[in-house]
Each structure stands twice: as structure tokens, then as C-alpha cells.
């Protein structure tokens, strides 16, 4: 060993039995990984990607655009065919809120993809190695991603839903179904849409961490939210009637429906069921993140 | 200090790292060498807890990596240059890592400058060349001012100026008392930087030695002498422990006497020499010799020696 090896000598070889004692004072000993710091890191990571801005913008844009269009093109004679068969119009009869929320079925894909990209994107790019080397306990990363994207999606899509409703209102002027923000349940429904979309974003994060692959996680997202309800209609009627309210997308649409159809859950129950699905997926993601090699 | 004890990693029935024990000491540069597929990267991933060992253990500064409150301050790593989201700028990438530890922005700017990335710090990493990606990886390894620096193939893709920069940097870090570990599959390159060598093949430890010892053992290249009076010279040089071979009429290959001795003897007896060349020690050749039987992806034998058994069962090297 060269004689100069410890010249500056700020770092004698550390021994495990010394590590409980204060470290030799270097300028760096104050560093420490904490939950809020990981959250701050994930917050910065989210906003420092152009794709986040774009996807988020697309989600809000779709929400407003389709909501406004559906309201303006509404005609009472063509109720059954107005708008796509999104979960918002599940009850059959349209109302001003369900029209304004026509865009939810599109926005949920954008927001879900946003969640997937935030998580699976780290695996496809290799960033995950840097992330987990910095936070080797791993789980704080998952919680932080969920805690960053959930509220961001919630706030912005709630604003988007409000905007869609307000922009669409003039289009329904004079129609029988016209409503205003102050009418019973309207604000609850619009906020419910934001809540649902916030949870969808978290669902995307969970799928991304669980599957570690953007394409796979997006496919799973589309499958669960859009295709599963259709496939399930192949079930025997009695099964379908019992089970279908508990499907993620049906439970989710109950959260933001103004009028509950007879076979749907109440908004509160719908929220609980959908949140349950998200929590279950998150638990699976946490297990895989913790247990398997990165 | 990194201490690996009987570290083993199996994927299915394939053993990638096999009962590997070694120590990386502070104040030294440890070269971690092996042919491609020898298990270097897997070992490094286990050191920072990305992969968990099937058997055995590895500690960093006395504890397993995940137990540290500030892991980036303990060990800074460059695993693969592309451990970065290409859509983020170099600054934002480093900032994201720094925030997890409460490392200040000032330090981020410091490592950016240290790595020579100041002019491209706000560019998206996706647009970086391989060399700039390596510099960014080294910058992130230094971010936490760590006691240990571990770099996987740090000079890959660097231009000569960059290679020299890495060499100087690692030397300085080791001289400051830090433990430095770098992996490579190039012996000659590593010998220029490292003090200590840990050589593996097929996941097993082949040698744990110093560069000096390795060089000495690899020595014995001898001296090439050429003279019109080769036959006479041959008898003059003969002696105990001296081996002389001849490949061409006027050329001798002498081991056991150095160039100085040979020259003196020749002058003394008036034998004219027209070549007197100490044969450079080929570390690369010695390394290849050492790892020959454990090369994972063997080329079709270009030489006469075909290692047919190399693809079947392998005995310990």
C-alpha cells in the first residue's frame, strides 16, 4: 500500500462495530435517506420528464374536449347512441354530468399510461438501478411514486372535469337535462371523476412496478379497464349481475355517476371497491419490488 | 471496505457467481477482472443489493448495503452507463438522486464540473455519447462523496483523454483513503490503474494478488538477441539457470540473463550484436493464459490447441 494512501485521512476504514458511534466528522455525514426526501426526489423526477407533461396534458385535454363535444352534440332523441359506451353513461339515460364526463374513458387511459410510464419506464431505461441504489430499501420508491402521481392526477383531472362541465353547459342550455354546478350531486360527481382518475394513475404505477414492462403494463391496464367488462358479459347472467358491479371499471364509474343505476354500487362503495383493487395491485407490486432482483 | 464472503448467485441451474470471497481495501485501487460473462457485473449488483445472493454475503463498510442510512455516502457506483432515463437532463438526473439523501444542489454542480459535463448538464441524456454517459455515471458515483467507489467498466467508450482522466481521478480517490474498485476485461488497462487484482472466471476466484506480483509472475519473457555469431554467443551465455532457445538462425531467446549481462558478455568476447531486446511482459497474455479455460464465449479455436473440454465439464481452474 502506498505510504500516501491515507494522506488526507478523512476516511479510515469503517468497522461495523464502530458504526453505531458517530462517524468521523466529515462534511457529508448529515446525508440520510428519508421518506420525504424520496418523495421530493420522485416529485422532481416526474416533472423533469417531457412525457409527463405531454401525457398529463393529453389526459386533461381529452377530458375537456370529449365532455364539451358530448354536451354540444346532445340531442334528446338520440340518447342511446350519444357518446361512446363509456362507463359514464352506464345508467342508460344521459344527464349533464355523464355527458360532461364522457372523456373519462379516454382520460383514464392517458392517466393510467402516465402511471405505467413513471414506473415501468424506469425498468425499460435502466434508471431503476440508479433509483434502487440510492434507496435500497426500495418500498419508499413505490409509495412515493404513488403519492406523487395520485394527487397530481386527481387535482388536474378534477379541474378538467369541472372545466368540461362548465364548457359544456351552454351546449345543454334549454335542454331538459341541463344542470348547474350548484345542483345536488354535481360537484360530488365531478370530484369523483378526479378521484377515480387519480386512483387509475396509481393503478398504472402499481402495474408498471408489478410487470416491469411498459407494453405489458399498458396492455394489462387496457384489459382491466376496458376489455374485462366486455368479456365478463359472456358469463352466465346470474353471475354477471352479481359480479359485474365489483369489476374495477364498474366500481370506478360508480364513483362519478350522478344517478346510480339499480345494479351499480353507491359512490362510496364503488370508491372502496376500486381503491381495494388498486391496493391489491400495489401490494403485488410491493412484493415483487421487495423480493425479486432489480 | 467491501467484503464478499462465499458469495454465490445461481439463476436456475446456472451458477454465475460461485463461492467468491474477496476484500476491497481503503486506499487501494482494486481491479476486478474477468472475461466477458465471468460474473463481474452480477457481483457488483449484489454488492449494492440490486440482486440478492443465493448464498453467502457481502458487506459494504461493515454492513449489508440496504442497512445504511445514506448508501450513496457509503459507496458510489457506476453499474452500467445506461442506468439513466434518457429523457431527463444530466442535472435533473443527478438532482433526483441527490434529493433522496438531502445532498445539496451545490454538490450536484460540483460533480457536474468535476466530470466535465458543465456545458451539457441541461441536455437530455438520451443525446449523450457513450463517453459522456460514462462521465455522468462517474459523476453520480461521486455524488455522495462516498468512502468506496465502484465502477463497472468505467473507461468503456471514453476517448484517450477521458481514459487518462479516469485513471488520474481513481488514483486520487484512492490516495485520499477511499476504496476504489473497478471492473474490466482488459488486463493491460487495469494494470495501469490498480494496486490489487481480483481475477475471476466463470464466477470463481482465479487470483487475488497485487499488480506487482502478477507482473512478476507473468515475467520471464526473456531477452531476444540477434547476432551473426549466434552459435558462439549461445555457448558464451550458457550457464546454470539460463535457458536459451532459438527460433531463427541468428536469433536467440535468452531467459536467466538480463540484457545488460548479455551485452557485457558479448562485448567482452567481441561478438557483434544487432539486436538486444528485453521481451516486454505481456500482462494481457498472462491474463488470457489464466482465464483461458474459463472463457464463457470462446471463439472457434484459431490456434492449434482446441479446448474441446472447455465446453463440457470444467474442473476448478
From TrEMBL, chain A:
The chain crosses the membrane at residues 53-74, 96-121, 142-165, 185-210, 217-235, 268-289. Residues 1-29 are annotated as: Disordered. The keyword Transmembrane applies. Residues 16-29 have a biased composition (Polar residues). Keywords: Membrane, Transmembrane, Transmembrane helix. The keyword DNA damage does not apply. This is ABC transporter permease. It comes from the Bacteria. Coiled coil: none annotated.
From TrEMBL, chain B:
Belongs to the ABC transporter superfamily. The keyword ATP-binding applies. Keywords: ATP-binding, Nucleotide-binding, Transport. This is Multidrug ABC transporter ATP-binding protein. GO terms for molecular function: ATP binding; ATP hydrolysis activity. It comes from Streptomyces diastatochromogenes. SMART domains: AAA (SM00382). SUPFAM superfamilies: P-loop containing nucleoside triphosphate hydrolases. InterPro entries: AAA+_ATPase, ABC_transporter-like_ATP-bd, P-loop_NTPase.
Amino acid at each position: 500500500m502506498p505510504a500516501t494512501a491515507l494522506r488526507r485521512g478523512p476516511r479510515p476504514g469503517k468497522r461495523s462495530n464502530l458504526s453505531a458511534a458517530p462517524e468521523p466528522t466529515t462534511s457529508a455525514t448529515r446525508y440520510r435517506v428519508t421518506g420525504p426526501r424520496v418523495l421530493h426526489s420522485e416529485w422532481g423526477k416526474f416533472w423533469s420528464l417531457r412525457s409527463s407533461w405531454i401525457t398529463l396534458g393529453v389526459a386533461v385535454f381529452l377530458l375537456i374536449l370529449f365532455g364539451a363535444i358530448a354536451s354540444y352534440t346532445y340531442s334528446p332523441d338520440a340518447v342511446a347512441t350519444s357518446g361512446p359506451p363509456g362507463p359514464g353513461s352506464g345508467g342508460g339515460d344521459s344527464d349533464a354530468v355523464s355527458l360532461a364526463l364522457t372523456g373519462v374513458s379516454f382520460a383514464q387511459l392517458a392517466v393510467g399510461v402516465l402511471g405505467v410510464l413513471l414506473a415501468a419506464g424506469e425498468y425499460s431505461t435502466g434508471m431503476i438501478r440508479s433509483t434502487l441504489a440510492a434507496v435500497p430499501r426500495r418500498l419508499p420508491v413505490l409509495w412515493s411514486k404513488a403519492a406523487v402521481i395520485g394527487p397530481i392526477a386527481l387535482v388536474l383531472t378534477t379541474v378538467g372535469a369541472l372545466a368540461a362541465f362548465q364548457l359544456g353547459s351552454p351546449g345543454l342550455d334549454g335542454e331538459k337535462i341541463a344542470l348547474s354546478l350548484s345542483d345536488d350531486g354535481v360537484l360530488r360527481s365531478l370530484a369523483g371523476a378526479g378521484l377515480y382518475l387519480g386512483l387509475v394513475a396509481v393503478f398504472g404505477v402499481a402495474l408498471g412496478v408489478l410487470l416491469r414492462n411498459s407494453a405489458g403494463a399498458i396492455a394489462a391496464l387496457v384489459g382491466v379497464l376496458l376489455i374485462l367488462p366486455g368479456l365478463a358479459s359472456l358469463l352466465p347472467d346470474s353471475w354477471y349481475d352479481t359480479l359485474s358491479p365489483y369489476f374495477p371499471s364498474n366500481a370506478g364509474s360508480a364513483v362519478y355517476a350522478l344517478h346510480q343505476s339499480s345494479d351499480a354500487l353507491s359512490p362510496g362503495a364503488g370508491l372502496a371497491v376500486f381503491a381495494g383493487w388498486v391496493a391489491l395491485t400495489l401490494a403485488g407490486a410491493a412484493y415483487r419490488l421487495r423480493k425479486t432482483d432489480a | 471496505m467491501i467484503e464478499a464472503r462465499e458469495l454465490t448467485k445461481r439463476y436456475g441451474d446456472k451458477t454465475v457467481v460461485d463461492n467468491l470471497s474477496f476484500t476491497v481495501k481503503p486506499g487501494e485501487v482494486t481491479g476486478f477482472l474477468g472475461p466477458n460473462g465471468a460474473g463481474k457485473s452480477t457481483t457488483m449488483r449484489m454488492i449494492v443489493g440490486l440482486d440478492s445472493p443465493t448464498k453467502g454475503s457481502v458487506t459494504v463498510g461493515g454492513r449489508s448495503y440496504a442497512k445504511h442510512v445514506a448508501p450513496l455516502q457509503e459507496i458510489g457506483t457506476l453499474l452500467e452507463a445506461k442506468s439513466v432515463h434518457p429523457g431527463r437532463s444530466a442535472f435533473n438526473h443527478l438532482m433526483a438522486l441527490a434529493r433522496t439523501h438531502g445532498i445539496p444542489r451545490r454538490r450536484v454542480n460540483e460533480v457536474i464540473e468535476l466530470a466535465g459535463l458543465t456545458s451539457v448538464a441541461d441536455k437530455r441524456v438520451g443525446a449523450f455519447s457513450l463517453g459522456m454517459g460514462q462521465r455522468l455515471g462517474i459523476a453520480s458515483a461521486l455524488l455522495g462523496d462516498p468512502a468506496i467507489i465502484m465502477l463497472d467498466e468505467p473507461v468503456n467508450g471514453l476517448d484517450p483523454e477521458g481514459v487518462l482522466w479516469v485513471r488520474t481521478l481513481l488514483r486520487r480517490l484512492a490516495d485520499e483513503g477511499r476504496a476504489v474498485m473497478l471492473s474490466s476485461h482488459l488486463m493491460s488497462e487495469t494494470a495501469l490503474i490498480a494496486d490489487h487484482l481480483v481475477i475471476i472466471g466463470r464466477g470463481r476466484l482465479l487470483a487475488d494478488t497485487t499488480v506487482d506480483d502478477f507482473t512478476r509472475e507473468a515475467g520471464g519473457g526473456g531477452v531476444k538477441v540477434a547476432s551473426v555469431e549466434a552459435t558462439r554467443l549461445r555457448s558464451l551465455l550458457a550457464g546454470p539457470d539460463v535457458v536459451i532457445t532459438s527460433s531463427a538462425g541468428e536469433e536467440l531467446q535468452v531467459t536467466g540473463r538480463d540484457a545488460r549481462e548479455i551485452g557485457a558478455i558479448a562485448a567482452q568476447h567481441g561478438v557483434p550484436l544487432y539486436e538486444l531486446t528485453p521481451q516486454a511482459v505481456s500482462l494481457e497474455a498472462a491474463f488470457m493464459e489464466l482465464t483461458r479455460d474459463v472463457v464463457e464465449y470462446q471463439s472457434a479455436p484459431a490456434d492449434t490447441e482446441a479446448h474441446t473440454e472447455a465446453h463440457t465439464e470444467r474442473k476448478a481452474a
